[in-house]
Every structure is written in structure tokens, then in C-alpha cells.
What we know:
The chain is an alpha/beta fold. The chain has helices spanning about 20-25, 75-80, 85-95, 95-100, 110-125, 140-155, 185-195, 205-220, 260-270, 280-285, 290-305, 320-330, 365, 400-410, 440-445, 500-520, and strands spanning about 1-5, 175-180, 195-205, 225-230, 245-250, 310-315, 335-345, 350-355, 385-390, 415-420, 425-430, 465-475, 485-495. Helix 6 packs across helix 7 (about 185-195), helix 11 (about 290-305) packs parallel to helix 12 (about 320-330) and helix 14 (about 400-410) packs across helix 16. The structure holds S-adenosyl-L-homocysteine. S-adenosyl-L-homocysteine binds near residues 181 and 186.
Amino acid sequence: MKATPLAQGTKRRYSGEQTTREATKDKFSAAPGGGHAGAGAGLSHAQPASPRDHDAAVVPKSGSSSSRPAGWTEDYFRSLYSSDPDFYRLGLKDPALGALLKDGVHLDFTDPAAVMQLTKTLLHEDFGLRVHLPPNRLCPPVPNRHNYILWLKDLLDSTSSSYSEQYDPQRKVTGLDIGTGASLIYPLLGCIQREAWSFIATDIDAESLASARANARANDLESRIRIVDRTASDPLIPLDDLDVDAIDFTMANPPFYASDTELLELAAQKSQPPHSACTGVPVEMVCEGGEVAFVERMIVESLVLRGRVQWYTTMLGKQSSLAVLVEILRKHEINNFAVTTFIQGSKTRRWALGWSFLARRPSPSASRGCGSLIAKSLLAPTTAITIYEPSSPAHTDLVPFLKTILCGMMESLDLCLWIWDEKSLRGMGFAESNVWSRAYRRRRAREGVLTKRAASGSLADVANSAFGFSLSIHPAKTDDELDEGTAIILRWLQGDDAALFESFSGVIRRCLRKDAIQSDH
Length: 521
Ligand code: SAH
């Protein structure tokens, strides 16, 4: 029997266009060519039929859920941009793009009009969105922005109060997009993909705010996206100003540069011509102290707001910023954080950072989705381990055998709750302390029952318990050549103490080893 960390497979994703702002930033991100996706990494899904393939399914307006194309599944959204776009085909679908293509197949990324049209075309073809982009504001690359939404979905789904680690279409989610820009791209992408999501979107730029409002209107999403004017000195997370008690997440793509001079210097240092047309203005790209200062402000506000936001998140342009900010989080003893990378083709890489004051722990794909691309010291502790059982033809009853061992073991412990779901072969357990330690068992023998069982046996009773986990059995697939046998995944769902997870995983390993030896299996 051997233990391995939960596999974190990655998948290549098409990058999309790139702004000069982003190309310039690359020089400082020390990002060698790569090509692995951050968001969505680790999940492989079959490519579903695209709504693009069903003309009747493409809706001109997005707000009405009744006209939502059947093909808009979670798998569909997750599979977008995993390969290079077919400009010829896109040009045939959207003549406005077709007219701007060279030889009908090539897109000139240095032509601002072509880059803007590509963004509009992708938003329409892939998401049914109609978006107006002012010519004098940043043009967002769709694949990168979409990656951020995919990562947020993963982060929220893996830390929901149901602990199910599944998408719950009924879960109402409110997000705050700080600095939404003229496109309103994040709220539009979020609302299209998740019908129970709504947004508060802020900005300090009057022109961007006017354009964002027009985009909400054009897509019938005014009731789900509240657009709020702010000034540069206002709090970034205005829950009190807006009389909002709590939200589920914040997101931001902060201005990168610390000054106009830095922006101009970086542009001047560029030895290559711009990769792509840039249509941005200083308010979008410059703020005092650059992105580190912007995110530090978010951290300072979060120290007061704490659990009123489940996930504080931001995108970052420089890996050096990530190191500084993780250090600040640790200094404030914020240990529940998530880091990922968004890869755009071979040239551009972005980072994202999220942190939470709540105790629910995200999946490894959401919290460490950057695999080996980031120094281990910048990552939060892993939250899942996979234990493989050696399988052989004689083990036809291996799954019920493992279930009996695991459930028996859990029932022998003083857990405050243990729930087993036979259909998914997954159990969830919660403990108030290290109830498997020798010291606890000795005390129990001396003083009798120490742990109180959850009063109603429901998850609400254990929301504040010190340690929560799931144990799931994944039977070997005989048709999969790479399969290493039946797997048991132990997932750390809740709690601040990584040592509890580590010591519990040791208990599970020992228990399986002991029983495997004692049995004939
Ligand atoms: N979210 C968009 C735009 C990002 S550019 C996208 O990803 O494409 C950064 C945006 O932040 C700009 O629109 C700028 O006007 C806005 N901004 C700058 N400082 C801000 C602040 N203090 N509060 C809210 N928005 C701010």
C-alpha cells in the first residue's frame, strides 16, 4: 500500500489575446514559457457539445434563465479555451470578426479593433453576452477572466456549508468585484455560468461605470448586478456603506503599477514590440504602491470584516507580489489561503490569491492549483491525501471490506458526527479535538464519555468543530490503464490545525495497513 498526494493534473488552455499592460508585466513575473491552466486544473471532463454547435440554442440576451441553452453545463464552461481558437470558424459565425481577419484566418493582435472584436465575439459565441467596449478602456482577454471565474467556482464549491464538494445550483452566492471596469466582465461571466449568483461591482472611473451599467442593461442583468460608484480613498470592501451584512467572495484585478513613471519606464524597457494592442488609461493600470499596496488595503479591511466575507480573492500580475502578500497573511496568522496560476499561452502568467477567516478548507485543486509552478513555501498545507489499495482479481469484495474497516473505525472514535453515504461511498466526520490520541483515550477510560454527539445529528451542529474530514472510497476502474487500484481519499474539510489532519491521516493509514495484513486480502 502506498500513499500519494492527490493528483493535480493540469491541462493546456488557450490564452487569448494579451494587452500591453499584461505583456509588460510579464518581464517582471519571471515566468518562463509554460502552458498549464490554473483554474480548473486537476479536473478532466469530456468535451460536451458546444452551444456554438446548436444555432437554435444561442440566445441573443442572457438574463432570462428560461432561454438558457441546454448545452451550458458546468463541463461546457470548464472545457472552454482548452485549445486554440479557430478564427476561420469564428469569423464565419460573426462577420464583424470575419471582416477584421487577415486572409480570413489570422488575427492581428496589434490591431486594437481586432482585439476588441475578438473579445466581443467570444463573449457572444461562448456565453451569449452582448458587450460594449469603449475604445479608450482596457479590453479584457476572455480566457484569462474566465479562468478566474472557474477558480472561484472551485473555491466556493469545495468550501460550502454542505461540505458536499459539489456545485449546488440552489446556493445563493453574492460576490464583490472591486474595479469592475468598462466591460463588467467578471459579473457578466459569473451570472451567466451560475444562475443563483449575484454581484456588487465597484469602480472609481465615471466612464467605466457608465459603460458597465450599459452592459448590465444590455444583458438583462441589472437585477443581479448592483453597480456602485466609489472614490479612490473609499474602503475597497464597502459592506457597511452598502448596508450589506455578509457576502461570499470578493474579486479584483488591481491596477498593477505603482506610478505613471513605472508604467512608462516598463513600456520603454520593452525590447520587443507589444504583443497586443493596449487600450487602457492610467486609472486602470496605476495606483499608489501598485498591486501590493492595493491588496494590502484589502487585507487590512479583511482583518476587521473577517468572516463577513467567506473568500477574499484577487488576481496578481507579479509573482514577487504573491510572495510579499503570502508573508503578510502569515504575519496576521491567516493560514487558510489559496494560491493558483492562470496560464495564458506560453507568454503570460497571472497569479491569484484568496484567504478566508472561516475554517472550511478548499480542495487542493483550488488552494494549490499551481502545482510545481510556485515555491512550496508559498502554498497552504495540502488538504487531501490519496491512499491506494493494491488490488488483484481476488479482491472482488475489496470495497465492502474497506467500508467495513473505515466505518468501524469511525464508529469506535468519539466523533461528534459521522455520516456515511452508501451511494457515493463517502463519509463525513467531525471531531471536537484529537479524539484518536492515546492521551484522549486514556482520559476517556478514566472519566467516561468526553465528546458530546451533535445534538440533532446535523451539519449545522458541527460548523464550529475543530476538525472535519471526508473519507471516500474510489473503486478501481478496470478499463483504465493508468489506474493504480482502489483509492481511499481523505480530505481535510474543516479546522485550523494542519497537525490534526496529519495525525488523523496517520491513523487511517495504520488502520488500513493493520487490517489489510490481518485479513486474507
Ligand atoms: N475588472 C476589469 C478591470 C480591471 S482594471 C478587468 O479585469 O478587465 C482595474 C480597475 O480598477 C479599473 O477599472 C479602475 O478604474 C478600477 N479601480 C482603481 N482603483 C479603484 C478603487 N480604489 N476602487 C474601485 N475600483 C478601482
